[in-house]
Structure formats: structure tokens, C-alpha cells
Design goal:
- The chain has about 120 residues and is an alpha+beta fold.
- The chain is about 20% helix and about 40% strand.
- It is built from two helices and ten strands; from the N terminus they run βββαββββαβββ.
- A five-stranded mixed sheet has the order 8-5-6-10-9. The chain has a three-stranded antiparallel sheet with strand order 1-2-3, covered by helices on one side. A two-stranded antiparallel ribbon has the order 4-7.
């Protein structure tokens, strides 16, 4: 058995959660969380950690190049974040762009998109 200590990041309370795994890496116990969301987070974090990626891409406007805040519309697997950032760095969009517009479709995973978080005329 292995016990891992995590800090739940689902809300600002930051509970310390202990996850116990068996020899097959299966979760057999979760303690320390103060709500069900903490248990779900801890189980996911030790078996399939995911993150919502937030970053910026270049947007070409009539006033020149600016930075457009973007994020994924779903969490993506944490091991793919490096690959994801390589795509982000190469991405250039042209204004106009509105909040929620898809900047990169099927980003890293089928059905996940990189979306704009700001309007540019
Ligand atoms: S376990 Fe619940 S209360 Fe504690 S940090 Fe996670 S979400 Fe917040």
C-alpha cells in the first residue's frame, strides 16, 4: 500500500487529503476531505490528473499584435500540458474575435477546444 498526501485545489479551503492506493494503483481509501468534491478530486488526481489550461496567444488587430487570453473548455490530461503549450505558442489568430470563440478546435483531445477569453475588434 502507498499513501499520498494531496492538497485539494477545488476550493480555497485547501484541505489536506490522504489517498491510499493498493499495489495495483487502485484507490482503496480517501481521508481528510471535508466534502464529496475533495474525494472526487483526490481519486482523479492520483489516477488521471487533469488541468484546465489557461494561457495567451497572439492576436493580430488593426493596431498591431496583442495578447489574447485563452483557456481550454475542458480539463486536459496533465501529461499533455507541455505539448499543449507548444501548440499555444505557435497559434496566431486574427481579429475580430469574441469571448468564447474557438481558437483551436479539438485541442489535444477530440471534443476539447481552446477558446478566447476576451473580445478584440
Ligand atoms: S475537500 Fe471540499 S472543502 Fe476541502 S478543499 Fe476540497 S472542495 Fe474545498
Amino acid at each position: 500500500m502507498i499513501t499520498k498526501e494531496l492538497t485539494c485545489v477545488v476550493c480555497p479551503a485547501g484541505c489536506k487529503v490522504l489517498v491510499t492506493l493498493d499495489e495495483n494503483n487502485q484507490v482503496i481509501d480517501v481521508t481528510g476531505q471535508t466534502c464529496p468534491r475533495g474525494k472526487k478530486y483526490a481519486e482523479s488526481e492520483v489516477t488521471n490528473p487533469v488541468r484546465t489550461l489557461t494561457s495567451t496567444v497572439t492576436v493580430q488587430t488593426k493596431d498591431g499584435a496583442k495578447m489574447l487570453p485563452v483557456r481550454t473548455d475542458k480539463p486536459i490530461p496533465r501529461p499533455t500540458l507541455f505539448e499543449a503549450m507548444q501548440i499555444v505558442r505557435k497559434t496566431i489568430v486574427t481579429a475580430p474575435v469574441k469571448t468564447g470563440d474557438v481558437v483551436v478546435e479539438n485541442f489535444i483531445e477530440e471534443g476539447t477546444n481552446l477558446i478566447a477569453c476576451k473580445d478584440f475588434e
